[in-house]
Amino acid sequence: TLGITLGEVGILLGANRMVRIPGNLVAGAFYDRAGRRPLFLAGLALGILSTLSYGLVRGFWPLLAGRVLWGVAWSLINVGGYTMVLDCSSAHDRGRMTGLYQVAFLLGLTISPILGGALTDSLGFRQAVRVCAAVSGAGFLVALVSLPETRLSGRRGYDSGKLPGRRRFRDWLAAVRRLDWRILAGSYVYLVVLFVNSGVLMSTISLYLEQRWGATVPIGARAVSVASLGGVLLALRSGVGIVAGPIAGIVSDRVGNRWPVVRGGLLLGAGGFVVLAFLTSIGAVPAGVGLISLSAGALAATVTALVGDLAEGERQGLTMGGLATAGDIGSALGPVFAFALAAVLDLRWIYLVCAMALVSGLLAT
Q: pTM for this structure?
């Protein structure tokens, strides 16, 4: 249909993330300078264009351009969305707000593969992406009509473009010296969480099942295929995350200190990987995945709120861009790390390394 090879599919799927790694920081800096609403709307418009392009073009290079465009769009949408949540919340309710925002994100992530597959089967790929672009267009219209500018009018962004080069460099050095190391600790935790969860676990769970039980897994009197069971476990991951995020956020609001909630989430995740590494029964698999998913959902909301508390001021966009970049680096490195070591190690040992990575996050906090 698209005139591309299987190897080129992998490049296309990774292209948008490679754009996002530097793009998140650039988007954050622009949000601090130009406000929220216009850039967020621009990101939505670019997202519609990139989706439409998949149904109009053929061949690797045009599709690569569409994926790069989507990477730019997602940097604007993701960083802008979280920055606006910071604008509209305070330290007393930011955990709840980030948790609710995460619910919307995970619901979309859960529904989109199911809806996309059904539309492709019934309408064909090109028509399916046009329908998806129309859905995105509806979201753009809602934002165009109802989304206000959330940046406080009295807050001045960092307009480095109006300063001489030497002055810009001195200000950049001063900003580095003023950097809050708690933000770096939170960003490191975020990187580790996405590395082990969205990176390693999501890409290897079916391979893990196959290494342990073969092509089918005995559950009671039935034999379930690895692919089907892996899909159920990934759905469990999203479902648990939807519940865990708001709860953890509300708890961190009421406690008045988010660090203990972050540490608890890291311990839960490390425990989940230890379960997968050492317990041999099939019942241990959903238990381990459930603990890891509970940890990831809780930490995604709580770490975002924690960094948001520390980022209050004129550099909110840049700080959230840095957090998003840390997450994208973790998600991108996870599959590379896992499949490189899977050639020489059983996945149980790789999962044990993931547990140790979460413990390193615990030490960083």
A: 0.86
